[in-house]
Amino acid sequence: MMKGTANMKDRNETATTLTQLRLAKRSPEYWRVTFDHPPLNIFGPEMFPQVNEIMTAIETDEQVKVVVFDSAVEGFFLIHLDFLANLDNLVHLPPGPTGLHPWPEILVRLSRAPVVSVAMIRGRATGMGSELALACDMRFASREKAILSQFEVGSGFVPGGAPMARLSRLMGRGRALEVLLSAEDVPGDLAELYGYVNRSLPDADLDGFVDALATRIASFDKQTLAHTKRLVNVASLPPDIEIESGWNACVASMAQPATQQRIKWLLERGFCKPGDAENHLGDFVGQVGR
Amino acid sequence: MMKGTANMKDRNETATTLTQLRLAKRSPEYWRVTFDHPPLNIFGPEMFPQVNEIMTAIETDEQVKVVVFDSAVEGFFLIHLDFLANLDNLVHLPPGPTGLHPWPEILVRLSRAPVVSVAMIRGRATGMGSELALACDMRFASREKAILSQFEVGSGFVPGGAPMARLSRLMGRGRALEVLLSAEDVPGDLAELYGYVNRSLPDADLDGFVDALATRIASFDKQTLAHTKRLVNVASLPPDIEIESGWNACVASMAQPATQQRIKWLLERGFCKPGDAENHLGDFVGQVGR
Amino acid sequence: MMKGTANMKDRNETATTLTQLRLAKRSPEYWRVTFDHPPLNIFGPEMFPQVNEIMTAIETDEQVKVVVFDSAVEGFFLIHLDFLANLDNLVHLPPGPTGLHPWPEILVRLSRAPVVSVAMIRGRATGMGSELALACDMRFASREKAILSQFEVGSGFVPGGAPMARLSRLMGRGRALEVLLSAEDVPGDLAELYGYVNRSLPDADLDGFVDALATRIASFDKQTLAHTKRLVNVASLPPDIEIESGWNACVASMAQPATQQRIKWLLERGFCKPGDAENHLGDFVGQVGR
Predict the structure, then answer these.
(1) Chain C nearest C-alpha distance from A143 (Å)
(2) What phi, psi does C239 have (nearest 5°)?
(3) pTM for the model
(4) Nearest-Cα residue of chain C relative to residue B193
């Protein structure tokens, strides 16, 4: 019946100033955003405006119904802030319209957008990568290749993108406290048990599953999707004040000399560079205070 | 000790004007409500007053402690509204005492009743069938034969009986959004993983398990059950305003021409009739917008 | 780097007036509290001040970061009130600073303390033992040897230490109602499925796992742990008024003649004594009203 609205006529890739991620429109209704900033998909100062541009496109496009976030980088979905980069611009960004710092604000915008967002997680999603996944409406992980975590507490600082607010509501207090306070790697099976992701699938099945789901959702009525999501938002999203408070706690913890010392120790041993430190981040942050 | 209060002396079946469901008192304290409206256990205009009558009996009886809802129809626990019936009476029912439309109000009454309610799900529970199960205090499913879903978004409208409010609190935002926005069939195993049901049991064990649980609860003190449930209600029930907002969104979405077109397409292909459409409802609603 | 702060120099055991539990400082940052009141680890009038003393130490110590609660008694983590003891002192304790009865108040203090608390559950945790575990930040159970429950409703009274508030938020309404209203034993596997515990581990692995986790957390920054937990508290802890209401409902239910009769029946058949009644408490309370 409605074949015409969901076909592939606009399947050309967009070409923008995006250099660290790509936007591909599989159809006008179904978009893919692919993080492609090898070797680590690390979140540096250039990543922020690019994610922001995508976010604005998602909010303003009249046709898009579903957006899938994935990665083109082997081993990494999207990870944490690049502490080796010049972060002055990022840290001093003015607040956005909600009064939140632009990073938590982007996450809030994603959660509230009248578009369905899906994180397809293969490789490591930690720090901002985990926070972006948590701001998506759904998360599906590779059973063999996904590792989620909030590594921050192990590095001496409070996470900034509101995982305290989101994980508590997603998996309950006990498991949220474990994920946050252990700062430990969470592989696919455990992520499914805890509800960190909707489901973990065999790696070979993940792409097919997510693509079928997104294609299905893209065939539904945009207004109905948006109104149904809006009502789930009322029941499940944290208030902005919790997110603001989490951000402020992050900034305050970063200013502690003990934290700066921990980060320095980590950076001297390979943090933010390809290699063992990032490949085994859970183990790595477990060494700093011993 | 207290044998006298829980014995079988009143074990006679009630005989009322009920034609689409049956009430059987296994004891004064333990009731069974069995949906028996073959071939689909579809929810038509006559079902509503019958469920309402049962609900009033549950609320006003002084002895009943536990009510189990089940089905006598192979393949179907209880499904959605019968779009082939004359729905004028149903749609134009005046609001109940809480100000809610009578359907969400019945669900609210069931959730708040000082009686323990258990859904024993074998076959399909979708639409109002899923909503009724979600309003029960507990849900147990046949691992092989239960299929739960909220198919509505696939048909172009927002669900009306508050699954946005209830699923979000039961299984967390991510899984609730998946169930609602995918409108997909959820079989027993997945329903258990997601917390859609308390547990899924091998089909052969389901009746015995639920009967033993209900018999056990029926042996406990009625006031203690009621007060304990009341405190769980405070911690877990959605506010009425969320339920009202969900109902209003449902009504508004039904009025969209695009939705009417989707429902017409579905009805022309077997929706609300025995056969493939209802037997594979998840697949079926995935075809309408392609 | 920070070896000096987490070393074993203070590994001597404390020696206080504690007779039913022990406090061992594995390091200044990592404490173990071991319930050792054979044969049942039952909660009698002397247990309360000892738990209270530990709680005050946890709150006031400047170095402790993580506390693990475990048991030295085969078969029992910590169980319910000792109804055979003189409970006058316990029942008539004046309210604490929050206005709550001292028992729920201790639980609230534990949940809010700027220290990470972990329950390592081997054997039975029921009544106050389950409530203490639920007030901890995390719970890990022996897959073979842990049994959790809230047996109270089966004995005719409402639980007093707020499991209605905590279980509802931890595992969702349906499973919380089942645990509370069935008053049934919950073994390790089911406790994990329901989220009653973070994880159940093979008994042989439990000690090693919990010790490694606690050692890891003890190596992290105390302020960062505390601030991160504080933000999870905002998102996940019940308001005190719910806890107060639960306590009041417990006290009121205890005063019912029918409840006193049930407790008398139980006591005459071995409740609160070593043997079948306590070893199979779930089955046992299922007999009283038959």
Answers:
(1) 18
(2) -65, 150
(3) 0.94
(4) C193
